[in-house]
Amino acid sequence: MEGDATAGRSGGRNGRIETISVLFVCLGNICRSPSAEAVFRHLLASEGQSLAVDVDSAGTGDYHVGDPPDIRSQRSAERRGIDLSGLRARQVCADDFDRFDLILAMDRSNLRALQTLRPGSSRAEVRLFLEYAEVVEDLDVPDPYFGGQDGFERVLDLITLASRGLLAALRRRHAARLIGGCDVNL
Question: Residue 95 region, left (φ>0) first, then alpha (ψ -120 to 50), else beta?
């Protein structure tokens, strides 16, 4: 899941494309965050080719480092034409707060963990992923790990909604930079 996020925070003016780097984070990096990484990559490939975005995922815990995504996540994603099989879990590290422009937590618990880990000098924006979803009742992506297959389907539905909102926000930011070189909050 290692993304090349070293190009983040580059210029963006005078027609140069700014690369933005996004890290999706859940607890173990085997259900929600790898699904978000793969769904967002899929969406970028089909609808966001004009944007330069580096994408990765990680977990706040070290329970599954090196493991592939949960087979139930893989099956749900595969039914939607999205392949998770090549992804491997890793844990968030201090360098991520310098490497990534936007760090998106799947729930409030992981958001608190990220805020605790975040170095004081970090310029990364850390927030909840579902803040990008247009219509949701709760800003937490529920952890499907201890439930049935329907929980994994629900997670993918929420992730898809938020991914579309994130893509729209990145497009607005890109357009604003091309027009006037100004920043637009993500």
Answer: alpha
CB of 15 closer than 8 Å to CB of 178: yes
Q: Which entry of 32, 41, 90, 177 is annotated as an active-site residue?
A: 32
What is the per-residue DSSP string for 107-129?
SHHHHHHHHHH--TT---EEEEG
pLDDT for 184 equals 52
Q: What pLDDT is stored for residue 139 in this prediction?
A: 97
Catalytic annotation present for 88? no
pTM above 0.85, yes or no: yes
Residue 31 bears catalytic tag: no
Whether 127 is catalytic is no
Task: Name the active-site residue from 54, 101, 107, 143.
Answer: 143
CATH 3.40.50.2300 fits 20-180, yes or no: yes
Q: How far apart are CA 56 and CA 145, in angstroms?
A: 20
pLDDT digits (tens, 9 = 90+) for 16-43: 567 999 999 999 999 999 999 999 999 9
Any idea where the domains of the chain sit in the sequence? 20-180
Asked whether residue 73 carries a pLDDT value surpassing 60, the answer given is: yes
Question: 3-class DSSP state for residue 91?
Answer: strand
